[in-house]
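Quick review question:
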C-alpha cells in the first residue's frame, strides 16, 4: 500500500512538472459528484496587438507586401519610365544620389536597355500600392503613367524631359526645369511651384491648374473637360453662325469670312449679318456647368502661349508674352494683374480685367457681353484705340481720347474723362445708339476666332499711323489715341511697347460696359510688387 502510494505521488509530480514547462495555469474543476480537484488549463492566445517577439507569426494573407528596391547607375541622358497599372496606386519622386536611380515598390518588373529604364507594377493585384523613386537632380528624364493614382514630384528635375499622365489622379510638381514638359491629369488637379521648359503641354481635363512660376517658349495649357473645346460651345457673337471672323473690313483691309448670323454687340459677319439693335447682354457661364477648372498663374513668361479654361476662371498675377498670349475662358472670368507684350483675350460672356504695363504692345479684348475693365500704368502709351460697348464706355478723368468720334461709330454712352478735338462733334447718346444700330451689319468685330490671332497682331504692328489702316466702322473710337490728360500730343507720359509711340488696344464688349482707368505711379508700383514678389497676390492665387 505504502509503496503504491509513493509511486503514484512520483507520477503526479512528474506530470505537474511537465505541465509547468508547457505553461498554463491551474483552476478548479468540479466533478460530477460535487467533488473537485485541480485541473490544468492551456494558455490563452494574447490579442494580436499585444503579441510579443515569441508570438506565433501572422497568416500569409495578413502580412504586408514587402517593397522591392532596385538601383541603377546613372548615365547622362537616362530616362526612367514607370507604368503603375493598379487603380489608385501612386508615385512619389524625391531626389537621391547624384549618380544613381532607385525605385522601390511591391512586385515590380524592371528592365534596362541602354539609357532606358522601364518599371511596371503587377497589374493582377487589386490592392493599391505606392512606388517610391529617387532621382538625381540632373540629366535623368522621367515618364510616369498611373491608372488614377496621384503623382507627387517632391524633388527637382533639371535638364531632362518630364512626362506625367495620371488618368484622373492629382499631379504635383515642386520644381522642374525640363527640356520639355507634358502634364496630363484627365480630371485631376495640377499644381507646380516652378515649371520651366522649351515647350510646356499641360491639360487637366476639367481639374484646376495652379502654377506659381511658368517659363517657356511655347505653352499649351487647357483646363477644359476632355472632349470639349470652347470653339465648339457656341462661340462668341462676332463669329455668327458659321464661325467666321465677322469683319467687314478687317485689319489690312481684308473682308470677313461671311458669317451668317447676327453678332454680339450688334456686329454681323462679312456684311451678311442682320441689322438691328445690340442684343441683350450675355450672362457669363458657370464653370461648373461646362466642366472647366480654374487656372491660376503667378508669374508667366514666354514667347507664345495658348490658354483654354472651358468655363473656368483665368487669373494671373503677371504675364509677359513677346509673341502672343491667346486665352479663351469659355465664359469664365479673366483677371490679369500685369500684362506685357501681345495678348488676345476672349471670355465669351465673362468679365475681363487687365492691367497694361509699360511694355505692352497689342491687346485684343473680346468679352461677348461681359464687362471689361482696363487699368493703364503711367508709362503705358496707347497709340491706337478702338472700343465697342453697347453698355457704355467710362473713361478715367486722368485720361484723354483724341481722334475721330461720331454717331456712325458710337455705340452706347460715354461718361467721364476728357475729350480731344476729334470728340467735339459727338452726337447725343440716343442718336449714337440709333446710328450704331443702323451700322450693325458692317460693325467691326475683334477678338473672335479667325481674327484675334497672331496674324492680326502682326497686321496691327505693320499698320501705320494712329489706329492703322483699313479699319471699318462700328467702334466707339476709330483711329484714336488714349493719353494722360496733361501729356502733349496724346503721347501718354512714357514710351509704350508698340514700337510706334505706343501700343494698340482693341476692346469689344458686345452689350457689356467698358471702363478705362489710369493708375497713379504709387498704385502701379504697388501692383507690380504684389504681382512680382509680394505675398498678397500670391496668397490670393
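Suggested answer, residue by residue:
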Amino acid at each position: 500500500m505504502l509503496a503504491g502510494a509513493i509511486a503514484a505521488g512520483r507520477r503526479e509530480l512528474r506530470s505537474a512538472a511537465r505541465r509547468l514547462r508547457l505553461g498554463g495555469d491551474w483552476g478548479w474543476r468540479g466533478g460530477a459528484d460535487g467533488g473537485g480537484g485541480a485541473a490544468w488549463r492551456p494558455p490563452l492566445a494574447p490579442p494580436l496587438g499585444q503579441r510579443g517577439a515569441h508570438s506565433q507569426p501572422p497568416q500569409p494573407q495578413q502580412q504586408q507586401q514587402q517593397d522591392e528596391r532596385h538601383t541603377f547607375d546613372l548615365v547622362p541622358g537616362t530616362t526612367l519610365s514607370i507604368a503603375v497599372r493598379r487603380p489608385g496606386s501612386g508615385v512619389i519622386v524625391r531626389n537621391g544620389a547624384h549618380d544613381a536611380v532607385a525605385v522601390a515598390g511591391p512586385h515590380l518588373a524592371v528592365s534596362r536597355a541602354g539609357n532606358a529604364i522601364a518599371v511596371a507594377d503587377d497589374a493582377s493585384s487589386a490592392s493599391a500600392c505606392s512606388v517610391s523613386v529617387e532621382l538625381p537632380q540632373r540629366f535623368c528624364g522621367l515618364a510616369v503613367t498611373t491608372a488614377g493614382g496621384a503623382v507627387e514630384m517632391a524633388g527637382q528635375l533639371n535638364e531632362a524631359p518630364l512626362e506625367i499622365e495620371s488618368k484622373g489622379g492629382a499631379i504635383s510638381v515642386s520644381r522642374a526645369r525640363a527640356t520639355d514638359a507634358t502634364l496630363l491629369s484627365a480630371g485631376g488637379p495640377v499644381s507646380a511651384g516652378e515649371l520651366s521648359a522649351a515647350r510646356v503641354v499641360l491639360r487637366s481635363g476639367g481639374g484646376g491648374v495652379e502654377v506659381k512660376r511658368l517659363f517657356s517658349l511655347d505653352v499649351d495649357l487647357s483646363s477644359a473637360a476632355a472632349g470639349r473645346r470652347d470653339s465648339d460651345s457656341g462661340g462668341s457673337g462676332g463669329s455668327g453662325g458659321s464661325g467666321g471672323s465677322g469683319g467687314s473690313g478687317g485689319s489690312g483691309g481684308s473682308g470677313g469670312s461671311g458669317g451668317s448670323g447676327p453678332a454680339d454687340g450688334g456686329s454681323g459677319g462679312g456684311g451678311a449679318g442682320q441689322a438691328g439693335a445690340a442684343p441683350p447682354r450675355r450672362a457669363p457661364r458657370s464653370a461648373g456647368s461646362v466642366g472647366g477648372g480654374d487656372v491660376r498663374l503667378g508669374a508667366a513668361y514666354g514667347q507664345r502661349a495658348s490658354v483654354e479654361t472651358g468655363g473656368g476662371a483665368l487669373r494671373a498675377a503677371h504675364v509677359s508674352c513677346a509673341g502672343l498670349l491667346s486665352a479663351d475662358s469659355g465664359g469664365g472670368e479673366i483677371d490679369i494683374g500685369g500684362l506685357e507684350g501681345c495678348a488676345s483675350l476672349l471670355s465669351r460672356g465673362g468679365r475681363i480685367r487687365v492691367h497694361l504695363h509699360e511694355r505692352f504692345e497689342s491687346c485684343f479684348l473680346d468679352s461677348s457681353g461681359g464687362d471689361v475693365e482696363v487699368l493703364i500704368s503711367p508709362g503705358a502709351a496707347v497709340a491706337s484705340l478702338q472700343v465697342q460697348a453697347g453698355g457704355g464706355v467710362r473713361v478715367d478723368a486722368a485720361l484723354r481720347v483724341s481722334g475721330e468720334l461720331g454717331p456712325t461709330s458710337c455705340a452706347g454712352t460715354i461718361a467721364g474723362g476728357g475729350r480731344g478735338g476729334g470728340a467735339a462733334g459727338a452726337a447725343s447718346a440716343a442718336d449714337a445708339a440709333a446710328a450704331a444700330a443702323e451700322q450693325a451689319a458692317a460693325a467691326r468685330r475683334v477678338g473672335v476666332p479667325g481674327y484675334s490671332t497672331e496674324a492680326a497682331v502682326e497686321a496691327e504692328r505693320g499698320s501705320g499711323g494712329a489706329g492703322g489702316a483699313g479699319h471699318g466702322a462700328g467702334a466707339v473710337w476709330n483711329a484714336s489715341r488714349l493719353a494722360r490728360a496733361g501729356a502733349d500730343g496724346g503721347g501718354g507720359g512714357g514710351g509704350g511697347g508698340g514700337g510706334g509711340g505706343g501700343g494698340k488696344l482693341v476692346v469689344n464688349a458686345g452689350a457689356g460696359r467698358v471702363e478705362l482707368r489710369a493708375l497713379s505711379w504709387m498704385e502701379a508700383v504697388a501692383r507690380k510688387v504684389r504681382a512680382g514678389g509680394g505675398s498678397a497676390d500670391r496668397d490670393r492665387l
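Why it works: The helical segments are 2-22, 287-290, 429-438, 454-462, 521-532, 536-540. The two ends are 100 Å apart (CA to CA).
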